[in-house]
């Protein structure tokens, strides 16, 4: 008896087989009864499988879909694939648990589609997963090992309304080879060693206009993002994926409106902790390296030196209130969420446009008292006002729908403009900040009114 070739065996193990392969196998095994074989799949064999992940405003980094690349287009001819046709299991940290499949459809690229069109064939099968699954996370303190962590098995045939087989079910599971994170994947990774030998890792987004024409005369704004204390690490990733502080400035819609460089440094482990209040961006080594990194980057890229912006959350906002008084003529404006600082230094920054926000019931960085003996945002704004800056204040719920949230922000900005005020302070009503009262920033960087205001600021008169 002649056996099946190794190539045929591997093809069958991939989960799908072609008609020609089946014909070859039948010829090779002509002297023996052939085992039952699956019918040919119209889409051909699966070539590669990727997880599609997303950085969310409140739930951090999540695995939201699986994209399977097939050799041929998946043509449903008006049919719909039921979610029950596929089973997806995540194997993470020694635990294996099912994910909830919510939608399945073809697409022309390895990405989700808010409005999938079943009539449009594509070589990618998108299996959307419920982002609220308990095991949907893509990272803890560090990124989770996601490569080949997901197993996908088709448990029911997929057919057209006319009964033609499109994708055949089978007992074999496939695993993901790749991990795709839109926008995050557009950041390059690097590190900077300052003149003292201290090293900061960073991620950098470069605007498409610069990428296409690096020698052009166009100069771009620079957004420097300062992460919170939870992202101090050596992975050069979680400063992007733990929250959307940097990612939201690089997403395509935002870049079309405000093309800019986005620089996201990460404080390394072990925490330097040389600062007087035990925080991170205030540590002298970190602060000096950050300033040198910004200066170096500004001279080596076409940065508009009059439009350098600081944005930060939690200890990143603490870093803003520590850095601005030391460099009061470097930054055009700042966004500071849930921060704290030294009221005695506020007189040095009365001229700098700032939009600060903080939840009144924040238990991690108290709204008035702050941390480590340094007062919170409410007290800093009062000190800034006493030093001569006019503060425009507003209070509303942090969990308002986006449209209503932006309408309140717009009204506050209009009041500030009428009063010729360039410092705005938003307080969030107790009990209205989802997940944790400390996470006030979820709305901040999705707020187009605030971001438009930021990019309107310049050191030029």
TrEMBL record:
Pfam families: EstA_Ig_like (PF18435)
Keyword Lipid biosynthesis attributed: no
Signal peptide: 1-25
UniProt source species: Streptomyces melanosporofaciens
Record lineage: Bacteria, Bacillati, Actinomycetota, Actinomycetes, Kitasatosporales
Classification via PROSITE patterns: TAT
Keyword set includes Signal: yes
InterPro entries tied to this protein: AB_hydrolase_fold, EstA_Ig-like_N, Plant_Biomass_Hydrol_Est, TAT_signal
UniProt KW keywords: Signal
Esterase Ig-like N-terminal domain mapped to chain residues: 50-165
Protein name: Predicted peptidase
């Amino acid at each position: 008896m002649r056996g099946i070739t190794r190539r045929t065996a591997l093809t069958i193990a991939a989960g799908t087989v072609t008609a020609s392969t089946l014909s070859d196998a039948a010829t090779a095994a002509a002297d023996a009864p052939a085992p039952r074989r699956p019918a040919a799949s119209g889409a051909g064999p699966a070539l590669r499988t990727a997880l599609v992940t997303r950085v969310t405003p409140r739930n951090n980094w999540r695995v939201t879909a699986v994209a399977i690349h097939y050799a041929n287009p998946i043509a449903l001819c008006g049919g719909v694939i039921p979610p029950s046709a596929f089973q997806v299991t995540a194997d993470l940290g020694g635990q294996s648990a099912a994910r909830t499949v919510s939608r399945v459809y073809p697409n022309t690229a390895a990405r989700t589609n808010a409005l999938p069109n079943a009539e449009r064939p594509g070589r990618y099968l998108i299996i959307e997963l419920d982002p609220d699954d308990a095991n949907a996370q893509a990272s803890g303190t560090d990124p989770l090992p996601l490569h080949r962590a997901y197993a996908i098995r088709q448990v029911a045939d997929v057919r057209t309304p006319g009964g033609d087989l499109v994708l055949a079910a089978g007992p074999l599971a496939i695993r993901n080879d790749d991990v795709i994170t839109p926008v995050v994947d557009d950041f390059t990774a690097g590190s900077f060693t300052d003149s003292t030998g201290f090293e900061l890792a960073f991620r950098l987004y470069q605007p498409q206009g610069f990428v296409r024409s690096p020698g052009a005369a166009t100069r771009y704004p620079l957004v420097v993002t300062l992460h919170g204390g939870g992202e101090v690490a050596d992975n050069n990733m979680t400063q992007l994926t733990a929250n959307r502080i940097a990612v939201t400035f690089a997403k395509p819609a935002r870049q079309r409106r405000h093309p800019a460089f986005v620089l996201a440094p990460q404080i390394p482990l072990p925490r330097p902790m040389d600062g007087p209040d035990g925080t991170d961006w205030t540590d002298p080594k970190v602060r000096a390296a950050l300033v040198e990194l910004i200066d170096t980057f500004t001279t080596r890229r076409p940065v508009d030196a009059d439009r350098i912006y600081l944005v930060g959350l939690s200890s990143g906002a603490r870093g803003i209130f520590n850095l601005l008084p030391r460099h009061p003529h470097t930054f055009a404006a700042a966004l500071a969420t849930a921060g704290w600082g030294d009221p005695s230094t506020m007189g040095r920054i009365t001229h700098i446009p700032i939009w600060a926000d903080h939840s009144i019931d924040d238990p991690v960085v108290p709204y008035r008292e702050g941390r480590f003996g340094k007062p919170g945002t409410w007290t800093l704004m009062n000190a800034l006002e006493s030093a001569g800056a006019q503060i425009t204040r507003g209070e509303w719920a942090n969990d308002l729908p986006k449209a209503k949230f932006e309408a309140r922000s717009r009204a506050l900005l209009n009041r500030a403009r009428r009063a010729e005020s360039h410092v705005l302070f938003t307080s969030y009503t107790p009990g209205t900040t989802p997940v944790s009262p400390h996470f006030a920033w979820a709305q901040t960087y999705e707020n187009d009114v605030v971001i438009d205001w930021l990019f309107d600021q310049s050191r030029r008169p």
